[in-house]
Amino acid sequence: MAEHLALQICTFLIWTLGVAGLTWLFCRYGIKNRTEGAGDDYFAGGRALKWYICAGSLMLTNLSTEQLVGLNGTVFADGCLCGIWWEAGAAIAMIVTATVFLPRFFALGLTTTSGFLGERYDLTLRTMVSCIFMVYYAVVLCPLVLYTGALAVKDIFDLSVPLWVVSLVIGLLGAVYALTGGLKAVAVSDCLNGIGLIIAGFWVPIAAINALPNGLSTLFEDGSELLKPLVERSWTIEEDEVARAERVPSVPWHVNLTGLLLTNMYYWSTNQVIMQRVLAAESLSNGQKGVLFAAMMKVVGFALLCIPGIVGILLQAHGVTFEGEAFVVEKPDEVYSTLVKAVMPKWSLGFFAAVLLGSVLSTFNSALNSASTIFGLEIYKIYFNKEATDAKVIKVSTVFGVGLTLLSFVIAPQLVHVGTIFNFLQLMNSIISLPIVTVFFVGIAASLPDAFAGKVGFVVAFVTICAGQAIPDLQFLHLFFICFVLASSTIALFTYVPALRTLCKREAVPETYVCDKTGVVDMTPWKPMYFIAAAILVLLVMLICSLQFASFGLHIAFWVCWFLVLAALMWFRPVVGLIDAGEGEAKGKEVERKADGGAAKDEVAM
User: Of 14-18, 211-215, 344-348, which one has max mean pLDDT?
Assistant: First the structure.
């Protein structure tokens, strides 16, 4: 035991200190800013991130313990692979992000996604969305990441310390990265930790499958019903139950292209935590390639985030023992940590702990950095001190981040009282995201709706999604889609019906929005983007079919094709940003001034 403990500590320190050292070297010497100014360097990484840094940061920001612990727990509770749509299905939304949203965002030279609303609508709507983002990060995301991270670390290593102590340590480490190094340090450390997480992440399901009586044969033969991603009912288990019962799972097949797709679009196309990494790319093509690479990884992410939950069911059903003890999962959210302790070699737990800690820190410090960025650029500099220097804005943002960290410490331990973690997260996401995705979607899709129509639709979306929570037995993703249609229809009515606009004392026909910006980095699209996007969709269809019909041969063919498409993606180079630092800085400031708008204009728009 003492030898194992010493080795675990050594592997933990080697990886953790190695990532910290390499992050410092990359930030100090390896990445040259494309724009000048301390503010752009802190909030936008100097707009100098290569595609692989963007992709690595995207993956690790998304892939954290609320996914490893939460999604595997949901799959275990569902008794099927319907939860795969949160993972592999997200590739569809990421393709939309790369092809539709990114060109618009890059043309405006944005640092925050809510800045698009300031340009497209007005400052008031931009501020409303910024405040929602901040509240969500402060009250839901940051505490949830700390809680799931602390829970996983505590369970895997059988720590006897209180949960809040583990949360405190993780939160302090994340705050150091996010509040001292800025976005660049966050993105680089994410990329490095992502390499380790891929190694450790695939190690767990491979070792777990090998522990089954006949390995993959058991998975595809005995687990054929468990592998189905398209189901309407399955044998589920809920909190405090000892036997499964046939019920509707968390993601029935009929929500995949409605509410679930819209929720994924919110997360991957408008969420500041995600988009801030891509907006810091050195060119549009770097951003697009980074997003599509991350989409490729999402297609196979089910192996890390879903398969362990299915294997846990099979291990328990077959009465498999480890070191003389039967494999037993006491509650769904404990399936992943129980599996890790059972199948991972004792000496490897130090490395696994370091990688797991890296994934927790990634999501936590990403949310912290994004919340600080929104407060500094969207609230403080616009409403409190318009003449503030970059140094002043950074200082204020850092203080705000410290306060947010302390709030997370208080809330995190209280989450022990919620049910399945991942379902709780998605429910909160649906309430927060509906008004946001509605105004973004309409703003991208149509040029005529103005700020007035957007605000009416925003309010309708928020009121309907909140009121809909009182309707019993209505699946929350169906509710999400229904409310989206109502809110979008409301925007259409207040845009295209002159009599209604006149009654509200507005111009009968709103002014058409025209984007005349050219961006602050190179705007050349990545040439093979549509070819790679189409290939990803084909891969997704192959994956779903292979699992739905439990076809081992088709599944092997899927993996072969996936590696071929990945090789093609890696082969084609993105266009390097060609705008020099001085020109980029000048354009950036011009975009910022125009996006902020004037107080007089906003009062009229109200």
Answer: 211-215
Check whether 530 has a pLDDT greater than 90.
Answer: yes
Instruction: Write down the pLDDT at residue 323.
Output: 81
Distance CA 309, CA 76 (A): 5
Taking 70 as the threshold, does the pLDDT of residue 577 lie above it? Answer: no
Whether the per-residue pLDDT at 37 is higher than 50: the answer is no
- Residue 281, φ and ψ in degrees, nearest 5: -65, 150
Query: Do 355 and 196 meet the contact criterion of CB atoms below 8 Å apart?
Result: yes
Q: pTM for this one? A: 0.82
SS (H, E, C) 7-53: HHHHHHHHHHHHHHHHHHHHHHHHCCCCCCCHHHHHHHHHHCECHHH
pLDDT average, residue stretch 469-494: 90
Lowest-pLDDT range of 14-23, 105-114, 121-130: 14-23
Q: Distance between CA atoms of 316 and 600, rounded to whole angstroms?
A: 66
What is the three-state SS of 313-370? HHHHHCCCEECCEECCCCCHHHHHHHHHHHHCCHHHHHHHHHHHHHHHHHHHHHHHHH
Residue of 189, 109, 110, 117 whose CA lies nearest to 458: 117
- 577-597 b/e with 16+ CB inside 10 Å = b? bebebeebbebbbebbeebbb
CB atoms within 10 A of CB 399: 14
Distance CA 458, CA 437 (A): 9
Q: For residue 562, how far is the Cα from the chain centroid? A: 22
Burial 523-533 (b: 16+ CB within 10 A, else e): bebbebbeebb
Q: Under the phi-then-psi rule, with left for phi > 0, alpha for psi from -120 to 50, and beta for the rest, what region is 601? A: alpha
Q: Which two tokens stand for residue 460?
A: 């309708």
Distance from C-alpha of 370 to C-alpha of 115, rounded to nearest angstrom = 13
204: tokens are: 């767990």
Q: Give pLDDT, residue 598.
A: 42
Distance CA 400, CA 444 (A): 31
Give me the residue label for tokens 């770097």.
Answer: 286
Say how far residue 587 (Cα) sits from the centre of its chain.
29
Helix, strand, coil percent values for the chain (each to nearest 5): 75, 0, 25
DSSP run (H or E) holding 214: none
